[in-house]
Amino acid sequence: MDNFLIRLKDHIEHVKKVGSHCSTEETTKQALILPLLDILGFNPYDPTKVLAEFAADFPGVKATERVDYALYCNGQPVMFIEAKPYSSDLTNHAPQLSRYFNSSLGVTIGAITNGKEWRFFTDLINTNVMDEKPFLTIDFTKAHPEDLTQLAEFKHDNFHAEKLRFFAEENQYIQQFKTVIKKSINEVDIDFVRYVAQQANIQRQLNTKFLESIQPFVQQAVQQAISDTVVKGLSSPTIITAQPVEPKVIEEQPKATEVAPEPDFIVNPDNEKIITTKDEQDLLRIVTELFPEVELEGRDTESYYSVLYQSKTNRWLFRYDVNRKRPTIQFNVTVDDSRKTELERAGLEVQNNGQIFIEKPEHIYRMVGILRDSLEHCMNDDNFKRASSQ
What digits encode the pLDDT tens for the residues 27-74? Predict the structure, then answer.
């Protein structure tokens, strides 16, 4: 990491020094964009990692419409980059970037850059549809140390689609929360005054007239609290008093009884042949995190592990089978050609019977589309009324 940060800091100085001389898009690419890709571990001279002028074959694409760079990991494109000249405003990003992103299901990140500013996009709002707003913006002429650390998430040897999506979501929430907090502190609106008065347990009726009367006091209190916090943070670590070192008397402690670590699997008390593995537990955890407001339950058997909707055995989202050389997962909806294409673009292997090889629980993130279809199928009572009447 230290070497990575040193190279990034050198790159910042390079951007500041030569950026104004990059008057064309091609110069910007060669002088500013490709050097950063190299720092991130995407060797610009290796077409298995960086492919320039990437052309896709989705319906409606023009022969001349290409994305400037596609970055590859394990033989699959994972990130598209649209390049602009150094002086370009990135506010209205190129439409072909979003078109390529939306039509390439294995790609999780889109970026637009003029070499000075980088804007990174993903699909937090609608799956496989690039968001209009970036989840991360970095300006090398105004870079902060924490920005440099964030760029490490995009290194070739650290590039994981699921991890980046969580990073994007976390970053977006933090930025939104910071905006609200700054606004509340600077403006101190009535809602914020009411919250402070309630937390302070003010024994008065908190009507609008009273809240407006104490609004200046709350604003003053906020300013003083911020000032006190800053002063305390600056002063406390600087006071270091040398103390004589007392020799430590080492008392022999009785040896603690070694406690065996708890197993990461669960054995069914009624049937010892049913063992719920850590991977099965992780699958349930991930799915419940994806759909926190839906009542889901894991159900294990000797043959497979299921995730059920509302504990109903006939309404299973998927069945996970580890009783073979490679674990598989099967959904309760048909894997038609469009779904198969979506899964294969996400780097998954689909069998003719609709079962999908899943090497680790985190790969369920690549199946969010069909997972959502499966959940909607379970939630639709009509699907099961027809089944019961036949």
Answer: 999 999 999 999 999 999 999 999 998 876 655 556 567 889 999 988
Structure tokens at 341: 């294409």
Confidence (pLDDT) at 118: 94
Contacts of 106 by beta carbon, 8 Å cutoff, 6+ apart: 76, 77, 78, 345, 346, 347
Q: What is the pLDDT of residues 238-263, one digit of tens each?
A: 444 444 445 545 555 555 555 556 66
Average pLDDT over residues 182-208: 83
pTM of the model: 0.52
**Close Cβ partners of 298 (under 8 Å, ≥ 6 residues apart):** 276, 280, 281, 283, 284, 305, 306, 307, 308
Nearest to 71 by CA among 95, 115, 104, 23: 104
Under 8 Å between Cβ of 277 and 346: no
Question: Can you give the length of the chain in residues?
Answer: 390
Topology classification of domain 2-171? tt1808, chain A (3.90.1570)
CA dihedral over 359, 362, 367, 372, signed as positive or negative: positive
Structure tokens at 194: 């009411």
Q: Where in the chain is the domain with CATH 3.90.1150?
A: 266-389
Distance between CA atoms of 120 and 131, rounded to whole angstroms?
10
Q: How would DSSP label each residue in 192-252? A: HHHHHHHHTT--S---HHHHHHHHHHHHHHHHHHHHHHHHHHHHGGG-----PPPPP--PP
Distance CA 145, CA 137 (A): 14
Lowest mean pLDDT among 19-23, 140-144, 158-162, 325-329: 158-162
Torsion of CA 139, 144, 147, 151, to 10 degrees: 80
Level-2 CATH architecture, domain 266-389: Alpha-Beta Complex (3.90)
Cα torsion 244, 248, 249, 254: sign: positive
Give residue-wise pLDDT tens across range 361-375.
Answer: 888 888 888 998 999
47-61, 136-150, 204-218, 270-284: segment of lowest average pLDDT: 47-61
Q: Which two tokens stand for residue 68?
A: 């400037």
